[in-house]
């Protein structure tokens, strides 16, 4: 006995997978001067071209991400630098105030020392029981 053979009916055609391209892929392919067929499979040359275009798109996206991360990093550094600068100014002001206060206290101490050294020494009596 022969195995039954399957013959598709004319109304039942096998669907051919469609090639789906993004707008960016279409734009880059047009830039290269290439048009790809709308259905699959592709030839090896077409596959290579499509891979090249997709690699260009990935590289472009990667470069954009890198620039974005660099900008975020620099913005963060700038804000940290501004905060450190403000803190530095505040601390400089505090140092000036403390130096002024220290000078004032030093003058008072010197005046006290001078005052006590000019007085004659007082003698006291100590009684031991």
TrEMBL record:
PROSITE patterns: BZIP
Record bears the keyword Transcription: yes
All copies of domain BZIP, residue ranges: 49-112
SMART domains, alphabetized: BRLZ (SM00338)
One MF term in the entry's GO annotations: RNA polymerase II cis-regulatory region sequence-specific DNA binding
Domain of life of the organism encoding this protein: Eukaryota
Gene3D superfamilies in the record: 1.20.5.170
InterPro entries linked: bZIP, bZIP_sf, CREB_ATF_subfamily
Compartments, record wording: Endoplasmic reticulum membrane
SUPFAM superfamilies: Leucine zipper domain
Membrane topology: Single-pass type II membrane protein
One Gene Ontology cellular component: nucleus
Keywords: Activator, Coiled coil, DNA-binding, Endoplasmic reticulum, Glycoprotein, Membrane, Nucleus, Signal-anchor, Transcription, Transcription regulation, Transmembrane, Transmembrane helix
Family: Belongs to the bZIP family. ATF subfamily.
Protein name per UniProt: Cyclic AMP-responsive element-binding protein 3-like protein 4
The organism of origin for this protein: Helopsaltes ochotensis
């Amino acid at each position: 006995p022969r195995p039954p053979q399957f013959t598709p009916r004319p109304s039942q055609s096998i669907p051919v997978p469609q090639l789906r391209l993004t707008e960016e892929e279409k734009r880059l392919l047009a830039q290269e001067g290439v048009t790809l067929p709308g259905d699959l499979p592709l030839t090896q040359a077409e596959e290579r071209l499509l891979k090249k275009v997709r690699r260009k798109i990935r590289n472009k996206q990667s470069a954009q991400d890198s620039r974005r991360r660099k900008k975020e990093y620099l913005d963060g550094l700038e804000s940290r630098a501004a905060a450190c600068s403000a803190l530095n100014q505040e601390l400089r002001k505090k140092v000036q105030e403390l130096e002024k206060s220290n000078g004032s206290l030093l003058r008072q101490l010197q005046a006290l020392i001078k005052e006590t050294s000019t007085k004659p020494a007082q003698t006291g009596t100590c009684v031991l029981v």
